[in-house]
Amino acid sequence: MGVEVVGHAVLAEGLRKRFGDKWALDGFDLAVPAGTVCGLLGPNGAGKTTAVRILATLLRLDGGRGEVAGHDVVREAPAVRRRVALNGQQSTVDDVLTGRENLVMWGRLYHLSRRQARARADELLEQFGLTDAADKRAKQYSGGMRRRLDLASSFITRPSVLFLDEPTTGLDPRNRGEVWREVRRVVTGGTTVLLTTQYLDEADQLADQVVVLDSGRVAAQGTPERLKSTLGGDRIEVVVRDAGDLPVVRDVLGPDAEVDPDAFRVSAAVADRVAALTRVTSALASKGVEAEDIVLRRPTLDEVFLAITGHKAQVRA
Amino acid sequence: MNALRFAVVDSWVVAKRDLVHWVREPVRVFANLAYPIISVLIFGLVFGSAMTVFGGGDYIAFLLPGMFGQTIAFGVAATMMTVSIDADRGVTDRFRASPMSQTGVVAGRSLADLVNSSLELLVLALCGLVIGWSFHNGLPNALLAFALFLWLRFALVWIGIYLGLLVRPEAASASWMFLFPLTMFANTFVSPELMPGWLRVVAEWNPLSSTVAAARELFGNPGVGGDSWAAQNSLLLAVLWPAVFVAVFWPLSVLKYRNLSR
To answer: Going by CATH, does the domain composed of A234-297 fall within 1.20.1250.20?
Structure first.
């Protein structure tokens, strides 16, 4: 009875979870349309992983309601487990086994017959570009290959919802790109992805919708474009040689500029990157300020946070 | 019926993973075997001449069942390590978020650990036969003695699972500090009769002592007897103690496993 899940693949209503006397989630709401990617953005301790673990049936909730792939995460946990896959922060790849053996093992644990498990492993190795390395032990894989193997093992049963908890933490840029490509590919196949990340650019690259978490609650949500425009997009940073020049630079950058006297640095949000760079360079030259460095960069997560929540990201001790 | 079939398949898949590890990384197996073999040589051949067995008898013949017991007891650390590393690396979470049978996870663990311990006992017994240990009451009794050791090992799997879920791998690797004295305050290396009063009571009632004493009796090795109730009923206790461990730690492990979602 393959009832198509229409509407929301992941739904959370007022989720609450307490650890000791601290609420890790305090009325968390989320609605992810089927076949889309939702990025949960927030610093360590904001509640991202807690939310994912509850929705993946790994953690009991203390209040509210969660529904994944059309089933309640508490009352219908086994039904949820058959339809989701979880990829945690650490790799669950078994180093001693070969890539193929890893996939066959998970296939068997997802209750495929031996023949089905082998056939599915071959398909996945092909899809994730691991066929050439299939019979090498995972120990010899690069970081990106291990991640891909880990992802492949989540796709044994073609889950309708995939939870990715910080999929690229600790990977170099090239390997991150590989993982992003795989995530985009699985979404084309119809899988809904809920992804947690600490990187703004990762959410920007992958997510249709971004939810910013702060202290267990949704602080902001929308498309990456909308969130970025809230922040004024990119930032310009000017570093000076002489601290005495800092006030002059601030005047040039405008009233919202932030001054970091210790770093001899002034930064401000800019709407048009190139125009701003030209304007600032010539203004500084005309005032006779010698800049050590002028850079254009994207806002950091800390700045997103500061802009959205009005306070700095607090890292849980 | 399906549930049972999947429990069997799942436990085999989990056990096979460990067995493949041992075959491909035999260094670990050798390292595990090296300790008991070296101990047998040190205690048997180096200290052996200075050791006395209460009631008389050859020390090597006395020592071997004690070494079997210590090896089995150390197995609890191996189980703890594997369980806590799997939990720490998120493998346990993957198992829990999958439709696999939860019985399969622990049954697979027991199976793999029992195979490993059987191998350790076999190698140790061969080593013992070389340096002069033997069994004198026939093969069936000897096999029964080994079955008692494995029965204890099975019980320790449950303690290992519970403790492994309780602590992180760093703490699990420190468990030796507690385990080592626990295996020495027993009849493993020295007869309890030769220990000071309070320690003697501890050693006599140590569950490991019951299994070792029962095995000595079944093997026909020296050092059997003693006037405490525990020493006189070692065979009964060798069956009962592990049963008590299983009865306590089986439900505790299941509870702990569920409470990972606390």
So the answer is: no
The kind and range of the H/E element at B248 are helix B234-258
Q: How far away is chain A from the Cα of B117, in angstroms, using its nearest Cα?
A: 21
Q: Domain ranges in chain A?
A: 8-93+141-229, 234-297
A45 in Cβ contact with A20 (< 8 Å): no
Summarize pLDDT for A139-148 with one digit per residue, the tens: 999 888 888 8
- How many C-beta neighbours within 10 Å does residue A114 have? 11
Q: What is the pTM of this model?
A: 0.79
**φ, ψ (nearest 5 deg) of residue A64:** 90, -165
Q: Indicate the residue of B6, B94, B96 with minimum beta-carbon distance to A111.
A: B6
The pLDDT tens digits of the residues spanning A58-79 come to 898 999 999 999 999 999 998 9
Q: Which residues of chain A does B87 touch, with a Cβ-Cβ cutoff of 8 Å?
A: none
Nearest to A92 among B20, B89, B99 (CB): B89
Please give the full DSSP string across B48-78, using - where no structure is assigned: GGG---TT---HHHHHHHHHHHHHHHHHHHH
Consecutive H or E run containing A277: helix A273-286
* B137 close to B235: Cβ distance less than 8 angstroms: no
CATH code reported for the domain at A8-93+141-229: 3.40.50.300
Q: Compute the distance between CA of residue B24 and CA of residue A217 in angstroms, rounded to an integer.
A: 48
**Surface of B (90-109) touching A: CB under 8 A:** 90-91, 93-100, 104
Residue type, B37: I
User: Looking at the predicted complex, does its ipTM rise above 0.85?
Assistant: no
Our CA-based measurement puts residue A100 at a distance from the nearest CA of chain B, in whole angstroms, of 13
Q: Is the dihedral of CA B171, B173, B177, B183 positive or negative?
A: positive
Closest CA relative to residue A120, chosen from A134, A137, A141: A134
The DSSP line for B162-222 is: HHHHHS-HHHHHTTHHHHHHHHHSSTTTS-GGGS-HHHHHHHHH-HHHHHHHHHHHHHT-S
